[in-house]
């Protein structure tokens, strides 16, 4: 005889609520004593007006109403909100937040709404241990006063400690699939990993060293269903199976729909507040020089205290007419959770970066991810840099290959494939918690 524990899971919703009332309906209808619901983080995304206007508290209300049992903060919660905002968000949570690597740098301890792990004793005495881990994006989190370092040895020690108290041990991970695979291969005490961050769709999970890793895509495209089998009486953990359910096949939950609509209405009202008044039009063009992106690049450079700056015109989604500008307008034309940063490059590295920026591969790129929430990157705009047929000039002088230049730019360029020399730069300074639209607001207040 066996007993089955069912754990439903979501990850990387990113405030994409198209299927949310359907997911909540299914969870509520299938609630029973041997069932739990966990969220793996990045439920919030400030590109959505609801999240922006409520500073993430609306997301917590939605998770509370859905009956989530345990949740892990993702990087979208951890690095797009200030420490105070994060405190105010999770203090309203009716669920337990788990994050063993979220340490307040000032106190050296966990915030009062976080625990590193939890042992959940279910009906009949089955005990399941949960350990939470958020994304180990050290350079971002440390700017906000958090220590999120990851250590395989520290996790192993914690897993040994928790496994001794539980019949099965689950890691709730926002570390991403590659790291989850490493953990599955190296830590024997962890039985199952429910993952996030890399948006992988794993229809029946992935097995590494006999351990099941689950992940359910992004934006609520799937609801994960994890089934754990235990021996009756001894509670010995026997097996784990995973499947992904399509929420489009579920009915909507009226309560979740009403709450979502109420939060959206409140958000619209909050974002209708005036932010600035323009005495002339702010023109934005993606594929040719225009005043809006240039002024924003100049403001970014000044804000960062750098003579040089660069950003793509596509970070501004549309022009603004003369007259009043609301916070909703700001969010609409610059919705990205993108932060300013300063990068140091040699002249040779800067030349290579500028040359790549001029290619159609970049200008026409309809980028998805890295915080970009626009349509297309568009032409590159510069401050203090002139690209002429006879060469590249910096502050009016020919660029020098060996010289070190400080460049004000956007954090999204430090990730991945966009600009390899920026990504590889040894000295990068991330400036948080300000978003690009905060700098845009400063600029608009001076726009005459």
From TrEMBL:
Residues 286-411 form the 5'-Nucleotidase C-terminal domain. GO terms for cellular component: outer membrane-bounded periplasmic space. Belongs to the 5'-nucleotidase family. Keywords: Hydrolase, Nucleotide-binding, Signal. It comes from Shouchella clausii (Alkalihalobacillus clausii). PANTHER family: 5'-NUCLEOTIDASE-RELATED (PTHR11575), 5-NUCLEOTIDASE FAMILY PROTEIN (PTHR11575:SF23). One of its GO terms (molecular function) is nucleotide binding. GO terms for biological process: nucleotide catabolic process. InterPro entries: 5'-Nucleotdase_C, 5'-Nucleotdase_C_sf, 5_nucleotidase/apyrase, Calcineurin-like_PHP, Metallo-depent_PP-like, Pesterase_YunD. The keyword Signal applies. Coiled coil: none annotated. The keyword Hydrolase applies. This is Nuclease. It holds the Pfam family 5_nucleotid_C. Residues 6-200 form the Calcineurin-like phosphoesterase domain.
């Amino acid at each position: 005889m066996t007993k089955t524990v069912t754990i439903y899971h979501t990850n990387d919703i990113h405030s994409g609520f198209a299927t949310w009332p359907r997911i909540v309906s299914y969870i509520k209808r299938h609630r029973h004593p041997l069932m739990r619901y966990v969220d793996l983080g990045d439920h919030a995304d400030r590109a959505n007006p609801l999240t922006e206007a409520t500073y993430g508290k609306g997301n917590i209300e939605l998770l509370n109403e859905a009956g989530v049992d345990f949740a892990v903060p993702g990087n979208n919660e951890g690095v797009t909100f200030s420490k105070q905002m994060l405190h105010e968000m999770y203090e309203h949570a009716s669920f337990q937040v788990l994050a063993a690597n979220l340490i307040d740098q000032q106190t050296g301890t966990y915030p009062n709404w976080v625990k590193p792990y939890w042992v959940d004793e279910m009906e009949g005495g089955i005990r399941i241990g949960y350990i939470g881990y958020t994304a180990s994006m050290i350079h971002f989190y440390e700017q906000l006063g958090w220590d999120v370092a990851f250590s395989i040895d520290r996790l192993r020690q914690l897993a040994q400690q928790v496994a001794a108290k539980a019949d099965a041990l689950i890691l709730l991970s926002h570390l991403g699939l590659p790291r989850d695979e490493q953990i599955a291969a190296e830590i024997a005490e962890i039985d199952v990993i429910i993952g996030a961050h890399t948006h992988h769709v794993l229809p029946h999970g992935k097995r590494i060293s006999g351990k099941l890793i689950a992940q359910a895509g992004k934006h609520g495209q799937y609801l994960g269903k994890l089934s754990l089998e235990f021996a009756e009486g001894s509670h010995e953990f026997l097996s784990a199976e995973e499947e992904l359910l399509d929420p489009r096949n579920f009915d909507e939950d009226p309560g979740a729909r009403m709450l979502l609509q109420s939060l959206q209405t409140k958000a619209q009202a909050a974002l209708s507040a005036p932010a600035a008044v323009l005495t002339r039009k702010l023109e934005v063009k993606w594929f040719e020089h225009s005043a809006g992106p240039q002024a924003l690049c100049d403001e970014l450079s000044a804000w960062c205290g750098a003579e040089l700056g660069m950003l793509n015109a596509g970070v501004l989604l549309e022009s603004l007419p003369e007259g009043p500008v609301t916070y909703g307008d700001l969010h609409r034309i610059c919705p990205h959770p993108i932060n300013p940063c300063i990068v140091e490059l040699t002249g040779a590295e800067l030349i290579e970066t500028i040359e790549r920026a001029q290619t159609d591969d970049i200008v026409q790129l309809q980028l998805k991810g890295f915080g970009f929430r626009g349509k297309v990157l568009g032409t590159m705009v510069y401050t203090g840099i002139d690209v002429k047929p006879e060469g590249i000039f910096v502050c009016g002088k020919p660029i020098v290959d060996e010289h070190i230049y400080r460049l004000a730019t956007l954090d999204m360029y430090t990730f991945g494939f966009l600009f390899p020399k920026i990504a590889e730069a040894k000295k990068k300074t991330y400036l948080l918690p300000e978003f690009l639209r905060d700098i845009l607001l400063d600029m608009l207040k001076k726009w005459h």
